[in-house]
Amino acid sequence: MSHACGMNTITIRQVRQQWPEVERRLAAEGELTITRDASPVARLCALSPPKHVRRKRFSVEMHARWMKEIWGFKPPRLNSGQWLDDERR
Fold it and tell me: Cα–Cα distance between 72 and 76 in angstroms, integer?
């Protein structure tokens, strides 16, 4: 990956084809200038990590508990498929 004129540059092709390497460089350098045909076209800046806690992956058991909290022991009147069928009629 090239560095021209003291700028941290990367080609648009490298962004498309070598994203893991681009991401590593971005984390280390903080900012990269994207070039096309040796001309700068964009600046890619690293963002700070999100401050919120990342959601856990979907869990059927947790979803069932959440549904029970919302609906209690009574199931919803219609499931989404039935609701869509009614709306389409």
Answer: 9
Q: How far apart are CA 56 and CA 21, in angstroms?
A: 27
Q: Which residues of the chain have pLDDT under 50?
A: 1-6
For 87, the 3-state DSSP assignment is: helix
Residue 29 is assigned to a structural domain of this protein: yes
Does 33 map to a domain? yes
Q: Is residue 60 part of a domain?
A: no
Confirm if 20 and 27 have CB atoms less than 8 A apart. Answer: no
Model pTM score:
0.48
Residue 35 one-letter amino acid:
T
Backbone angles phi, psi at 72, to 5 degrees: 70, -145
Average pLDDT, the chain: 82
| Residue 78 is assigned to a structural domain of this protein | no
Q: Within 18-73, where are the H helices? A: 19-29, 60-71
